[in-house]
Write a sequence for this structure.
């Protein structure tokens, strides 16, 4: 999150094009790497192939090395600001993380897709995933409404 | 040229796609000081649909992140491009024989395409199985991701890349829930 208050729709057209291309490339990678496949997610949870573990593991290795370099050299973004990697908040017993995480996992194994891939599948020939998106948005809405009553 | 296109149309190995997905983390930080994470978009979509609602929707964020919603548009477009122009029609995902046997034993018969069409189709929404997996699964993914403050991208990739303990706990939670669904719930639903 930037420290500069963002105006709604305050991104320049060039910036929006950059995000659109980033998302498009990511969507292509999701399909070509089969990480959007319900079959692959089942294979992962049944511990029957390295495919998903290799995908996520190598992504984390590249991401981790980059984050280390960014911190080591106190790099600035192209916008000129120092890069801020906001840590996730530590909560007592990390309750929201394991309880929310397990809730997410229950759904992940049923749906076979997480919040990025559901959009890619919806665009990639499985339009019933638009219904799953609506349901996921309803889930996020319910959390926004009632989530504060849950242990965090 | 022909052989290049043939190569592109094959599934790409994980050691190619995984590192490229990981590159999105530094690309977003360096280009725009943004943290890669996709599930917050679900909250942003709520805020776009119901802008006059009380500000609880954007409690976690100062403003609707149009940058992140633009990535979502790209995800949809990328899915369309990859399936329409960069894939063979009717491709079978090369899952292991054991997975195929396990899923076959649960009653999955159609292994064509990225997802089993017998479950993930509009017709199947008329069945209990389809409702539980599409609507139930979708709801749990949306609710759980926001409860946990992130999903596979925000916690699993960006959080783990920065070795953050909350993200590690969340990822362990993802797998705990996934194992329960896979081994206890799916056999009842399918």
């Amino acid at each position: 999150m930037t420290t500069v208050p963002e105006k709604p729709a305050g991104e320049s057209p060039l910036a929006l094009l950059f995000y659109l291309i980033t998302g498009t490339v990511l969507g292509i990678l999701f399909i070509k790497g089969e990480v959007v496949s319900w079959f692959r997610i089942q294979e992962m949870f049944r511990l029957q192939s390295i495919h998903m573990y290799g995908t996520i593991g190598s992504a984390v290795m590249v991401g981790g090395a980059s984050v280390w370099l960014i911190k080591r050299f106190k790099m600035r973004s192209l916008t000129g600001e120092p890069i801020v990697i906001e840590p996730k908040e530590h909560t007592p017993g990390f309750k929201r993380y394991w309880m929310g995480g397990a809730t997410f996992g229950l759904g992940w194994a049923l749906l076979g897709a997480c919040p990025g891939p559901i959009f890619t599948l919806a665009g990639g020939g499985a339009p019933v995933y638009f219904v799953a998106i609506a349901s996921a948005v309803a889930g996020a809405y319910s959390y926004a409404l009632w989530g504060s009553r849950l242990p965090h | 040229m022909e052989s290049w296109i043939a190569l592109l149309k094959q599934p790409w190995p994980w050691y190619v796609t995984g590192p490229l997905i990981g590159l999105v983390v530094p690309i977003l930080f360096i280009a725009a000081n943004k943290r890669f994470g996709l599930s917050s978009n679900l909250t942003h979509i709520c805020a776009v649909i119901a802008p006059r609602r009380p500000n609880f929707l954007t409690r976690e964020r100062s403003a609707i992140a149009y940058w992140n919603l633009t990535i979502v548009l790209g995800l949809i477009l990328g899915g369309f491009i990859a399936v329409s122009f960069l894939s063979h029609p009717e491709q079978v995902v090369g899952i292991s024989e054991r997975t195929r046997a396990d899923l076959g034993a649960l009653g999955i018969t159609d292994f064509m395409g990225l997802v089993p069409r017998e479950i993930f189709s509009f017709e199947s929404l008329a069945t209990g199985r389809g409702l539980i997996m599409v609507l139930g699964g979708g709801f749990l993914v949306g609710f759980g991701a926001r409860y946990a403050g992130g999903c596979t991208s925000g916690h699993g990739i960006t959080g783990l890349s920065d070795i953050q303990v909350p993200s590690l706990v969340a990822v362990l939670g993802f797998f705990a829930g996934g194992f329960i669904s896979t081994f206890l719930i799916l056999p009842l639903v399918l």
